[in-house]
Design brief:
The chain is of the alpha/beta class. The protein folds into two domains: 95 residues, 3-Layer(aba) Sandwich (Rossmann fold), CATH 3.40.50; 80 residues, Glutaredoxin (3-Layer(aba) Sandwich). The chain has seven helices and nine strands. The chain has a five-stranded mixed beta sheet. It has a four-stranded mixed beta sheet with strand order 7-6-8-9, with helices on one face. β4 and β5 form a beta hairpin. α6 packs across α7. The N and C termini lie far apart (64 Å).
């Protein structure tokens, strides 16, 4: 029997998850399937399971990045290597022209064991409505502002989320433990929230959303 091969387009970040329908059509046109490294469905591991169950012998992973920042390509190899080690199905997996061996770095590390010692937790909504109204720029501005201040996860932990629900106020950003919700947060407002409110302790300003 001739070997069976497949191509998987892998969305690397939340941006790709929010463009799922577009990317699915592109993948179909290229004779590929679509999976996601984070946020979207199917997950990369689930798609590898499906292809292996269908008898595919060789799988080529092609990262897809819509724009802006995304995890390094090395995460494709980490996840695929984890999949190879975890099961008894041994399809050949390629990232580019390089074969995944199963000896790649794992998904655990001593550095990822403890909960960060952050004092603030920022949730940046990346649901479809927020994304359509500029949440990518909001998230990038949060990261840039914290970077300019020399702050990392042990100071302010930033998490990009799915829909947080007050969608009419997109883009939405939440600061905990304050439980302060902000709406219509463009890039400039995001920087102000980080610098003045989160770090400076000043009044949160007029973008605060009322609670029930």
């Amino acid at each position: 029997m001739a070997p069976v091969s497949a191509i998987v387009h892998v969305g690397m970040s939340v941006r790709e998850a929010n463009q799922r329908d577009v990317l699915h059509r592109r993948a179909e046109a290229a004779g590929a399937s679509l999976a996601f490294l984070q946020h979207g469905e199917p997950s990369l591991v689930a798609e590898l399971d499906r292809l292996a169950d269908a008898g595919v012998d060789s799988i080529r992973l092609e990262p897809v990045v819509v724009g802006g920042r995304s995890p390094a390509r090395s995460w494709l190899r980490r996840v695929a290597g984890h999949w190879l080690r975890a099961g008894d199905r041994r399809a050949t997996i390629l990232v580019g022209d390089s074969e995944v061996t199963g000896r790649e770095a794992g998904l655990t590390s001593p550095a990822w064991q403890e909960v960060p010692s952050h004092t603030r937790h920022l949730l940046v909504c990346r649901g479809p409505r927020c994304q359509a109204q500029g949440a990518d720029a909001t998230a990038a501005a949060v990261d840039d502002a914290l970077g300019d201040l020399g702050l990392g996860d042990d100071d302010v932990l930033v998490t990009q989320t799915g829909c947080l629900f007050p969608c009419n106020n997109a883009p939405v950003l939440v600061v905990h433990p304050d439980d302060t919700w902000f709406g219509r947060v463009d890039a400039d407002e995001a920087r102000r929230i980080v610098v003045d409110h989160v770090v400076g302790g000043q009044d949160p300003g007029d973008h605060v959303l009322p609670r029930r």
